[in-house]
Amino acid sequence: MTPIPIKDLKKIVAFTDLPDEHLQWIAERLEYHEYADGELMIKKDDPADTMWFIPEGRFDYYLDVNGQQVYYYNFQNDSVSGGVGGLLPYSRMKASPGYAYAVGKTIRYSLHKKYFKELEQLNPAFIQRLIGYMTERARAFATTQLQHEKVSALGKLAAGIAHEMNNPASAITRISSELSKRLNENYLLTEKLLQCKISAEHIQSIRLLVEEKEQENKEKLTPIQRMQKEDEIYDWLENNDLTGNNIAVETFTEAGIIGEDLDGIRNGSGKEEFIQVLRWVENLLFSHRVIKDLEEASMRISNLVGAIKSHVHMDQTNELQTTDIHRGIEDTLTLMGYKLREKNITVKKIFAENLSGVPAYIGELNQVWTNIIDNAIYALPKNGELTIETASDNKNVYVKIIDNGSGIPPEILSRIFDPFFTTKKVGEGTGIGLDLVNRIIKHHNGEIKVNSKPGRTELVICIPNHEINKT
Q: Rounded distance, CA 157 to CA 155, Å?
């Protein structure tokens, strides 16, 4: 093998200031490779056993994230990577986690790891320089990883918002249409009512009855109770020879009207007059009900907007602030409500009273709740149970998030906080959620622990309730 000329090695940033005799030693042990534009240099799971140098061209590096190639980094002959890549001294990498592709004509020199010990003895300062490049590379990977996780979290948030907004928005559209129809019917029904010469006092008594029923604290009827109430009204209509007149009995039942109330509404009216009164009252009651539904749907959207604003930390800077832990958790549950409903998951909240505010980076902490609760929902079966408990002492605030799913197998329990580790199916998880959670908790000088067995998985987050370092 012909040694690579020293003058070519001197082009590589990492070799700056190296003595010629050291360059000569390296040159005699390098292998030369050349790649065309777009050519694959490294693929996933290739052995990581060489350090390589790039005097010319560039390699774009893509990590394998759940079967997809995601761009993460580029290696070229600059001050950032030093023109160095692959396995570096003291690295624990065993195999390539992704793919490297040449950009333009690219030249690579490779040095096998069997020479690393000799190289360290030859020039310890050079080894330290390489470790510096490795540290910078790890930092760049972590930054990119965080960006991808934020995009993933944004996708989850957007999906949650779309699902949560859809129901009340659709309800408002449906209610508006129905209310418009009912208001138009009101003109005709009022005209017929006036033709019956109903007195103002009679109308006043009906209004007072409706208002009284609205103010009553009615419990929601079970299906069986509803059927019984409707049967009672049907019986009253039958006893008064009023069946077969298209009277919407369910509307009266919903309003809490019973047969005794119908006697008051009739107030001595003849049969035909009373039928017109019933139809007019039914239209009035139904209109009141859909207006309430409209109010609830609008309030639902308003609450969602408030939860979104709080969750993404709008109108606030990303600085350390006194944070209401309970509100952050509640907002997260609101935005993930559709996932909870899909599996009919019961949520138990055991919140400590008078929990003090916690100094925290609110936006980061909300990512913690989102990732952990999302993972719990994924792990839970239909009709599962999610429990969230909070507590505090003089030093810390504690949050327990517990699910009664199948548990985490003991053989992988120690790996769940590793970067890119996931138990989710391809396309359903990034493998960076719990790694991000762990780093955020550490950023708050806190800690997170996990205990798991079949039927109970518990994550315990501990956050100091005093001022934390801002570094």
A: 5
Candidate from 113-117, 208-212, 382-386, 394-398 with smallest mean pLDDT: 208-212
Q: Is 74 helix (H, G, I), strand (E, B) or coil?
A: strand
β-pairing, 50-65 vs 31-35, is: unpaired
Residues of the chain with CATH 2.60.120.10: 6-122
- What is the arithmetic mean of pLDDT over 60-70? 82
What pLDDT is recorded for position 426?
39
pLDDT for residue 432: 44
Reference 72, options 142, 124, 120, 121; nearest CA is 142
Q: Look at residue 94 and tell me whether its pLDDT is greater than 50.
A: yes
What is the distance between the alpha carbons of residues 390 and 355, in angstroms, rounded to a whole number? 8
CATH superfamily of 317-464: Histidine kinase-like ATPase, C-terminal domain (3.30.565.10)
CATH 2.60.120.10 for the 6-122 domain, yes or no: yes
DSSP one-letter code for 115? G
Q: How far is CA 181 from CA 49, 175, 186, 193, in A?
A: 75, 10, 9, 18
Residue ranges of the chain that CATH labels 3.30.565.10? 317-464
Q: Which of 362, 368, 369 shows the shortest CA–CA distance to 347?
A: 369
Smallest Cα–Cα separation from 98: which of 41, 42, 49, 141?
A: 42
Count Cα atoms within 13 angstroms, Cβ side, for 410: 2
Q: Which amino acid, one-letter code, is at 337?
A: G
Burial class from Cβ neighbours inside 10 Å (0-12, 13-18, 19+) for residue 436 reads: buried
3-state percent breakdown (helix, strand, coil) of the chain, nearest 5: 50, 20, 30
Q: What are the pLDDT digits (tens) for 185-196? A: 888 888 888 888
Sheet bearing 346-350, strands edge to edge: 346-350, 385-392, 396-403, 456-464, 447-453
- Band of the pLDDT at 312, cuts 50, 70, 90? low
Quote the crossing angle between the two packed helices 200-215 and 259-266, to the nearest 10°: 160
pTM greater than 0.90: no
